[in-house]
Amino acid sequence: QPGRETDRYTLELIRSESQAAPLAVADSLIQQTPLVGQPEHQEWQLYDPIDQLEDWREVIFTHPSPDQASQVIYRLELPQSAALRFSITLSPDVWTPEKGDGVNFQVFVRESDTDQPGEFMFQRYLNPKVNPSDRRWRNYVLDLSSWSGKTVDLYLIAQAGPDKNDAFDWAGWADLELGSLDPGYLSANR
After folding, report:
1. Contact 186, 11 (CB under 8 A)
2. 31-64 burial by CB neighbour count: b if 16+ within 10 A, else e?
3. DSSP 8-state secondary structure symbol assigned to residue 20
4. Is 61:170 a contact under the CB 8 Å cutoff?
5. Which of 4, 10, 132, 144 is the most buried (most CB within 10 A)?
6. How far apart are CA 53 and CA 139, in angstroms?
7. Which residues contact 133 (CB under 8 A, 6 or more apart)?
8. Average pLDDT for residues 11-35, to the nearest whole number?
């Protein structure tokens, strides 16, 4: 189980900052066919309380079971100074307190076709039922530069919350863009 040690790879940004991040996009994962998993594509609208606007995004919908995480795995050739821009949330339809216990979102990376262990690069537990700050898109840039130039399997994982209650665990991943990012940008904004 990954812990907060993944924070060193992660930069959280508000919507406008995320869109302005100088990522030289090489690929959109939403348009790719994953190696494993059959993601369901949806469109979700959330009100952004910071930028004060309605925010529509195309989503890869995932729903874990109590005993098994939902996984979508992409095989990717990472560019130099690799980074992933993405956003996560739970569907606004499940923000009321009686609907589930939240979702643990994780990104795991391992080099393809090797016996080398991988690494959890990202973890966030969202529970908009009890945490109002999770009632929006959470936007991230993930530093993947330690894997630059390699072919990797990138796992998007959604796990049921701490009570293993998968009811209403309607997890969404959006803005999945892989590219190159000046390492100075990440260090200057942490």
Report:
1. yes
2. eeebeebebeeeebebeeeeeeeebebbbbbbeb
3. H
4. yes
5. 144
6. 15
7. none
8. 93
